[in-house]
Amino acid sequence: MAAEEKVYAVVPPTPGSEPYWEAANAGKLVLGYCKACEKSYYYPRGVCPMCLSTDVEMRESKGTGTIYTYSVMRPAKPVYVIAYVTLDEGPSMMTNIVDCDPGAVKIGQKVKAVFKPREDGTKIVCFAPA
Amino acid sequence: MSTKGKAYIVGAYEHPTRKAPDKSLAQLHAEVAKGALDDAGLSKDDIDGYFCAAGDTPGLGGNSFADYMGLRLKHIDTTDTGGSSYLVHVGHAAQAIAAGKCNIALVTLAGRPRSEGVQTGTNPRMGNTNQPDLQFEFPYGPATANMYAMCAMRHMHQYGTTSEQLAWVKVAASHHAQFNPHAMLPKVVTVEEVVNSPMVADPLHRLDCCVISDGGGALIVTKPEIAKSLKRPLVKVLGTGEAVKHQMGGQNLDLTFSAGRWSGKRAFDEAGVKHKDIKYASIYDSFTITVVMQLEDLGFCEVGQGGKFVSDGNLISGVGKLPFNTDGGGLCNNHPGNRGGMTKVIEAVRQLRGEAHPKVQVPNCDIALAHGTGGSLGTRHVGATVIMERE
Ligand SMILES: [Zn+2]
User: Fold this and answer.
1) A79 in B contact zone (CB under 8 Å)
2) Residue A3: what pLDDT?
3) Could you tell me how far CA B162 lies from the centroid of its own chain?
4) Would you call A74 an interface residue with chain B, using a CB distance cutoff of 8 Å?
5) I need a labelling partner for B238 at 20 to 30 A (CA). Which of A77, B116, B228, B303 fits?
6) B146 touches chain A (CB under 8 A)
7) Which domains does chain B have, with CATH numbers?
């Protein structure tokens, strides 16, 4: 277990993305959802990347998924695990795997959303072993 | 419209420097431009088209660099696809020449990340906050090494690719680099040395990663009539292809293949040649995994068999079936400006002219391929392929 925890950088939201960050700060992961395709996508945005429909909204994810791939960044202090998690709703997203031994992370592992502090005290979604 | 045979590469020059603290970026661009013009037997005022990548020519649209060199232009293209830009530029130059928009095109690359102390592989670089994906990715620490490492990790999981197989890519590059007096890492290494080097981003070790170097390179591309009036061996552009691969909203994420699957097919279709016709291949080697995946994507072996294909010296000139990166590549020789596409074209041109080092020159090298990936294999990137023939 890493003793030191990473504090996440704050990148300013762009017009339309504020609700994603407000949800994260409230402990919720939201995805983009296209009402025309009836499919979720990540990252959320004002158009559907499958069909370019603007009839889209943000929907809360269950926050559960599976590790598609990962890598442990060894020279970093603290060491961190970057990963793509495939959510149960379908889309895959870049994230960090936290609250575990980096050496024990595996492809195919079940994970769940957890929320970690950013530099300004608000929160960002990460994933931990389920 | 096919551009097959409508353009020739008549000048190619790689800057000998690997560390240039006393030279400006613009000066490096100018020096490689001069080098390529001298190689071609042309002069500055012959150039009427300029191709450069926005990322290594700061200022609006290449204007500042055209100004620095005093170029008089009727065509300019500053397409930036990262390290594959210069492969894209060869295709775009061929198109512009075939369409009569310019006659003699200059392509330049330069960079000095080593002098500037850029931690290229391990330090996530903050971009413009208007880049739409930035806020959703940058906080998680996507550097260069861990993005490619995630592709390697998945490739290993899905196809059983091993660290030892990846190491063979570096071993082959080092066998070639020993003959290149300018190579940053001219020492021959073994599979054991690669897999025992420090882990950077699992499963990639330090020796799975390319060098960080200053320098640059340039090309001159022109139409057939002018090429035939010059004194250099004729290197004809047979086929080019480009393709973009991204995430499509996270649907069906597959990090085990690259855009080379599409750009390669386009280039082969235009060139009208088969894989067995390719005597030499320059394959962008930002990391060992990059080579394995691109060889699969280009069709040199079956999907998932890239690890097996590169093993046992199969990429070593004079030993294996597909000699690659005979200058030592990005893994051992040079990766100017963190952009490897230019040196890929240059070494292919050397091979086709018979001007590679005698120890690595491929006999009767009449058809060669150069391919690269620009951007990040782990997020979004542009693949570009160029197939060339010695006439
Ligand atoms: Zn849609």
Assistant:
1) no
2) 54
3) 24
4) yes
5) B303
6) yes
7) 8-117+209-390 (3.40.47.10)
Sign of the torsion formed by the C-alpha atoms of B297, B298, B299 and B305: negative
B213-263 pLDDT per residue, tens: 999 999 999 999 999 999 999 999 999 999 999 999 999 899 999 999 999
Name every residue whose Cβ is closer than 8 Å to that of residue B36 and which is 6 or more positions away in sequence: B11, B12, B13, B106, B108, B217, B218, B219, B220
Q: What is the pTM of this model?
A: 0.97
Nearest to A45 among B132, B147, B157 (CB): B132
Residue B243 Cα to ligand 1 midpoint, Å, equals 23
Q: What is the CATH number of domain A18-129?
A: 2.40.50.840
Q: Which residue has the tokens 């990429």?
A: B315
Domain boundaries, chain A: 18-129
- Considering just the CA atoms, what is the radius of gyration of chain B in Å? 19
Place of tokens 């017009």: A15
**Of A21, A52, A10, A66, nearest in space to B248 by CA:** A52
Q: Tokens 């069709």 belong to which residue?
A: B299
Chain-centre distance for alpha carbon B282: 7
The ipTM, to two decimals, is 0.97
CA neighbor of B92 nearest in space, from B29, B7, B33: B7
Q: State both tokens at B34.
A: 């001069």
Q: List, for residues A11-40, the tens digit of each pLDDT value.
A: 999 999 999 999 999 999 999 999 999 999
- Residue by residue, DSSP assigns chain A as --SS---BPP----TT-HHHHHHHHTT--EEEEETTTTEEESS--SS-TTT--S-EEEEE---EEEEEEEEEETTSSS-EEEEEEEETTS-EEEEEE-SS-GGG--TT-EEEEEEEEBTTS-EEEEEEE-
Chain B residues with beta carbon closer than 8 angstroms to that of A82: 140-142, 146-147, 150
Q: Residue A127 has which token pair?
A: 């994933």
